[in-house]
């Protein structure tokens, strides 16, 4: 009898709640019972609330078991785990799980499905097919496909990717670069991480396509240091790709050279801002550069550089494989395609949900998320990271669309959605926004560097009931100054969460200091 | 992880690993902190010489990044996430609890997002992430770390 394949994710969330221990327990239990199993370490399907989520291959179906602990393993074997036997933790075939069925997995389709570090598995799932197709199409047609797709930067700014690539392709320079922004500093976001841990070769292929399209022979990945497991997975994938000739000079005799260097950040939030990231890649302090010049003209080491977020890049191979029109056919208005929304915080079923734009917050939080984890009423939702607006419950029907969000003074950013129940003290969260800005400001511009500290002080006075009205007006004025006069989004958008609290949850300022 | 001064030879080896390229300063410091825990003034001096940078330049970079500690940490570094998603799941209480457990062996640091937001509150002990951490689980993690000694 051949070994039964059991998938146990090696992905930060799964490992953080015991996936490695489950893998060890399965191997030990199988050995004791003289059964042959083959452990496969895949990435995450994004259903973080079910982690550790393991799957057993039985009669060509993958039977899932959720929230498995090492202590469950003996009883799972007793229940006939290897034949997909009945057990409290059994969820049924993975492709029948509600959470996954309704998703539109354009970018994350390989995550969870494949063994993350197996080049063979990657190749068996269309790996490097888009790169080879790109070589047949030629750079112009590749850029045209990206432009047609309407893909916009998924890091948060939403800039059209096709225009960025065109600018770099047209720039006259011997050396150009692809800089992949994997700094994912926005709190409440983890889609880059899930992609890199679940489909690292997919990112490598995406960067190579970008390099081919714009004429860049070198790529950098700037990965945040808070992701050590990602670093190890990505490092091994890069090595495997190099050894197999998918990176390096004259890749697969195509005449195309492309290499990738993996850099680590060092705990600075601002380094997720593209110009600060370039400074950091050059070995310097992550201080924001004034724009212009745009990085597409003068980027890394002064050379034309494509700076794209992980998810932006990872959306590319399917655009090449299936065509830009297909991608543009999803979504609403000028928000084309899909976004990997990350639902977290006080929510029952937190995780990653890739859907076409136009889905509402309510669908994501109630249908997917299952409401608050505490069971208490929802009070607020922060969308788009630490610089994102706090939305009250009555705005949950807003469709996720860049423009619709801009219309209500909010932003989608990198797609993080953090849920709070009615115990949240919004005044404290407004203070936290200023505190975070004070902590992370690069210090180059005054409104951000000093405004954030003054903002904390003003909010403290309001919370302490000191001259409420006057301080309210002062805080609004400070928000105007920061928004209008800061160099980058750090100082420029910190007012978003603060203003939204003033607008929707003003009563929390009167609640006084929390204990 | 040493509590004492960092071996100049070891630093030299790290610099060579990056071909003494000044643009690799951040990466060199990342490696030094990973392997030695912190950056001393001697190290700053040595790096400035080796990379042909001014001491002020190196010092500026060291001061800029949160990860580059300028004091030796304890044997174990415990990062407790204090960002919004973990706050919504009660991380305030966990942070207070964590600080009550700090001693010479255990350094508690704040971190603003470990990207484990759907399994909060999140903690990292010596580069390993843990999710759904309550005070009880926190104590068990610390006990295990102390036992392993690293």
Could you describe the 3D structure shown?
Chain A folds into 4 domains: 4-101, Glutaredoxin (3-Layer(aba) Sandwich), CATH 3.40.30.10; 127-327, NADH-ubiquinone oxidoreductase 51kDa subunit (Rossmann fold); 332-421, Ubiquitin-like (UB roll) (Roll), CATH 3.10.20.600; 426-509, NADH-ubiquinone oxidoreductase 51kDa subunit, iron-sulphur binding domain (de novo design (two linked rop proteins)). The model of chain A has no long low-confidence stretch (mean pLDDT 97). In chain A, the strands form 4 sheets. In chain A, strands 2-1-3-4-5 form a 5-stranded mixed beta sheet, covered by helices on one side. A 5-stranded mixed beta sheet of chain A has the order 13-12-16-14-15. A 4-stranded parallel beta sheet of chain A has the order 8-7-6-9, with helices on both faces. Chain A is of the alpha/beta class and 515 residues long. Chain A has 23 helices and 16 strands. Helices cover 40% and strands 15% of the residues of chain A. Chain A has helices at 12-16, 19-32, 73-78, 98-101, 119-124, 129-137, 139-149, 161-170, 191-198, 200-214, 228-243, 274-281, 310-314, 316-322, 324-328, 361-368, 402-407, 426-440, 446-449, 451-463, 468-485, 489-493, 495-504, and strands at 4-7, 37-40, 54-58, 61-65, 90-93, 177-182, 218-223, 259-264, 305-309, 331-332, 335-336, 338-345, 351-356, 378-383, 390-392, 416-421. In chain A, helix 7 (139-149) crosses helix 10 and helix 18 runs antiparallel to helix 23. In chain A, a hairpin with a 2-residue loop joins strand 3 (54-58) and strand 4. Chain B is of the alpha+beta class and 150 residues long. Chain B has 2 domains: 8-64, Arc Repressor Mutant, subunit A (Orthogonal Bundle), CATH 1.10.10; 76-148, Glutaredoxin (3-Layer(aba) Sandwich), CATH 3.40.30. Chain B is built from 7 helices and 4 strands; from the N terminus they run ααααβααβββα. Chain B has helices at residues 8-17, 25-36, 41-51, 55-64, 84-87, 91-100, 135-148, and strands at residues 76-81, 106-111, 123-125, 128-130. Chain B has a 4-stranded mixed beta sheet with strand order 2-1-3-4, covered by helices on one side. In chain B, strand 3 (123-125) and strand 4 (128-130) form a beta hairpin. The termini of chain B are close together. Chains A and B meet through helix 1, strand 12, strand 16 and helix 18 of A and helix 2, helix 4, helix 5 and strand 4 of B.
């Amino acid at each position: 009898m051949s070994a039964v394949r059991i998938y146990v994710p090696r992905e930060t969330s799964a490992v953080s709640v015991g996936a490695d221990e489950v893998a060890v327990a399965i191997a030990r239990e199988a050995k004791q019972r003289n059964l042959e199993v083959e452990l496969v370490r895949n990435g995450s399907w994004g259903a973080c609330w079910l982690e550790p989520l393991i799957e057993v291959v039985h009669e060509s179906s993958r039977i899932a078991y959720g929230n498995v602990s090492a202590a469950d393993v003996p009883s799972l074997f007793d229940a006939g785990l290897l034949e997909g036997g009945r057990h409290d933790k059994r969820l049924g075939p993975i492709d029948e799980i509600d959470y996954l069925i309704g998703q539109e997995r354009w970018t994350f389709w390989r995550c969870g499905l494949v063994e993350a570090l197996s080049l063979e598995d990657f190749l068996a799932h269309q790996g490097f097919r888009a790169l080879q197709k790109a070589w047949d199409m030629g750079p112009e047609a590749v850029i045209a496909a990206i432009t047609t797709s309407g893909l916009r930067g998924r890091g948060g700014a939403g800039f059209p990717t096709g225009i960025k690539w065109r600018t770099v392709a047209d720039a006259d320079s011997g050396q150009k670069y692809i800089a992949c922004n994997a700094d994912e500093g926005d709190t409440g976001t983890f889609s880059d991480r899930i992609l890199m841990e679940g489909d690292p070769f997919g990112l490598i292929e995406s960067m190579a396509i970008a390099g081919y399209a714009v004429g860049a022979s070198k790529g950098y990945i700037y990965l945040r240091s808070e992701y050590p497991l990602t670093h190890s997975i990505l490092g091994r994938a890069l090595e495997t790709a190099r050894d197999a000739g998918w990176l390096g000079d004259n890749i697969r005799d195509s005449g195309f050279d492309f290499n990738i260097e993996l850099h680590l950040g060092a705990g600075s939030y601002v380094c997720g801002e593209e110009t600060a990231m370039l400074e950091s890649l050059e070995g310097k302090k992550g201080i924001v550069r004034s724009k212009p010049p745009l990085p597409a003209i003068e980027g890394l080491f002064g050379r034309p550089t494509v700076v794209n977020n992980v998810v932006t890049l990872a959306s590319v191979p399917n655009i090449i494989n299936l065509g830009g029109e297909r991608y543009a056919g999803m979504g609403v208005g000028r928000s084309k395609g899909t976004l990997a929304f990350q639902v977290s915080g006080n929510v029952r079923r937190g995780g990653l949900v890739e859907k076409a734009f136009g889905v509402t917050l309510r669908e994501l939080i109630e249908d997917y998320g299952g409401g608050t984890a505490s069971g208490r009423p929802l009070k607020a939702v922060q969308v788009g990271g630490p610089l994102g607006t706090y939305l009250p419950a009555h705005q949950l029907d807003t469709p996720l669309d860049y423009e619709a969000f801009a219309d209500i003074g909010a932003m989608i950013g990198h797609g993080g959605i953090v849920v709070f129940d009615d115990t949240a003290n919004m005044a404290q969260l407004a203070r936290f926004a200023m505190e975070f800005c004070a902590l992370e400001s690069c210090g180059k511009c005054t409104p951000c560097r000093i405004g954030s500290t003054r903002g904390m002080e003003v909010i403290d006075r309001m919370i302490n009931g000191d001259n409420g009205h006057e301080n309210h007006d002062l805080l609004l004025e400070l928000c105007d100054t920061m928004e209008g006069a800061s160099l980058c989004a750090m100082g420029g958008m910190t007012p978003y969460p603060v203003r939204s609290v003033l607008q929707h949850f003003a009563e929390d300022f009167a609640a006084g200091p929390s204990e | 992880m040493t509590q004492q001064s960092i071996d100049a030879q070891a630093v030299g080896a790290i610099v060579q690993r990056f071909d003494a390229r000044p643009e690799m300063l951040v990466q060199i410091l990342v490696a030094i902190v990973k392997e030695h825990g912190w950056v001393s003034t001697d190290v700053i001096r040595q790096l400035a010489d080796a990379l042909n940078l001014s001491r002020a330049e190196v010092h500026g970079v060291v001061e800029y990044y949160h990860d580059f500690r300028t004091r030796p940490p304890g044997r174990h570094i415990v990062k407790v996430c204090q960002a919004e998603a973990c706050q919504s799941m009660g991380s305030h209480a966990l942070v207070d609890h964590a600080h009550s457990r700090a001693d010479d062996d255990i350094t508690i640091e704040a971190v603003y997002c470990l990207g484990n937001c759907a399994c909060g509150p999140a903690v990292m002990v010596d580069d390993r992430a843990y999710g759904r951490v309550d005070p009880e689980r926190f104590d068990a993690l610390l006990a295990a770390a102390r036992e392993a000694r690293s």
